[in-house]
Design goal:
With about 500 residues, the chain is an alpha/beta fold. It folds into two domains: about 260 residues, Rossmann fold (3-Layer(aba) Sandwich), CATH 3.40.50; about 200 residues, Class I glutamine amidotransferase (GATase) domain (Rossmann fold), CATH 3.40.50.880. About 30% of the residues lie in helices and about 30% in strands. The strands form six sheets. It has a six-stranded parallel beta sheet with strand order 2-9-1-10-11-12, sandwiched between helices. A six-stranded mixed beta sheet has the order 15-13-16-18-26-25. Strands 19, 20, 21, 22, 23 and 24 form a six-stranded mixed beta sheet that branches. A hairpin with a 2-residue loop joins strand 25 and strand 26. Helix 1 packs parallel to helix 2 and helix 1 packs across helix 14.
Amino acid sequence: MAKCIMVQGTMSGAGKSLLVTALCRIFKQDGWRVAPFKSQNMALNSCVTRDGLEMGRAQAVQAEAAGLEADVRMNPILLKPTSDMGSQLIVNGEVRGTYQASEYFSMKRELIPEILSAYHSLAAENDIIVIEGAGSPAEINLKENDIVNMGLAAMVDAPVLLVGDIDRGGVFAQLYGTIALLEPEERARIVGTVINKFRGDASLLKPGVDQLEMLTGVPNLGVIPYTEAQIDDEDSLSPRFTVRQEGRMLDIAVIRLPRISNFTDFAPLDKHPGIRVRYVKNIPELGGPDLIVLPGTKSTMSDLVWLRESGLEAAILRKARDGTPVLGICGGYQMLGLSLEDPYGVEMGGQMRGIGLLPVHTVFSPLKERRRVEAYARAPFKSARMEGYEIHMGHTDNSNVAPFCQIKDGSRDGAVKGAVFGTYLHGLFDTGELTIQLAEWLAGRRGLSLPKARVGSYKAFKQEQYNLIADIIRRNLDMNALHHAMRVAQVTTGGMA
């Protein structure tokens, strides 16, 4: 049975996912069979496994770093927020329903057998399981029936690393306050603290680190420097939304919808030296882009209402009439159509007028479409090969319009009308072929000549990034102490994780 180590954080965005990803790559490099695990993930960025099931993107990324196929056992519970108070519940890759927060809170204990079944199944196949917590273990209002932080650590007897984010300030208070709010048996699980995202001379932290160790009795196992490694993000705390790439010829504006999902679709565009990607949420930020993108969303109808009320729909229509190209992906594609019907109450119920830039109609269905596909773009993109996946609820009738792409199985996807495009395909830019052709097409519309650009496979680029973060963590984290903690925990439980 596998050894394990759990990474918890003082808050969301402290760097848990990146640290787990790095540890998965380090252990793989060192010859161990390693798998990631997160019992419950709340995120709108998800992925489709090879067998057509849905899981959190962070664990899919961690699986890649470990050299494994994404497997729903690595993330048995996925919550996809549909509103401020409710989420779609996905268990072992399948939709189980949509619940209000209070309803889900009361049913969490019922999910423990499925969580432990997934965990022990993975543990039987691997040498090491690297577990990721969620939020903070010191959210004392949510500690009852905890299944993702210290509650899970107790179930599988995991030693815990506690990560704090110095970049957001107050890291010593974060770490000390978190530990102080834990129960004695929970504090005893913490084998070390980690200070993440440090900029500067780490020796200047020593007085604070020494005092923190004295106050908590917990050793500090590492100070991790701030790194610009580009790993797929899973939630709205992503720094991607505020990054500005200056000096690039082409400007792409992605509308930052309230329930934006799978925004990692656009990460490969950053690799093209001629493309700047911006995320905008109001009319002044929109400016005069070369392309407007309506991304995926978990709540198409309510986000379309927001688009109208914010004035962005009218602004997009004006831009489109003036010739600005528009691309809609998944929920964004649905919005661009003539109408959206929801006879089963999957979203808001009833019927809604679409933006009207594409002659398609969408009818929502309780059944979720999930599949990986290979496809080839149609004009004007010269058969660019794409490898991606679909995750959507509903069918869009595109029978009266030219398709965006041809799926390898012979079916058609999406729609094209003039300079307006729509597709259900997530990951459409990952191969690099569509990125290059899109850049050339946009440049040609403006009479620009782009320098020759080589945009390789995004998969290959991600492998380089996993090695980069593994090198950084290996240099700055006490790996010997980590291995010792895992050995002690395994001996304590008689070899059973």
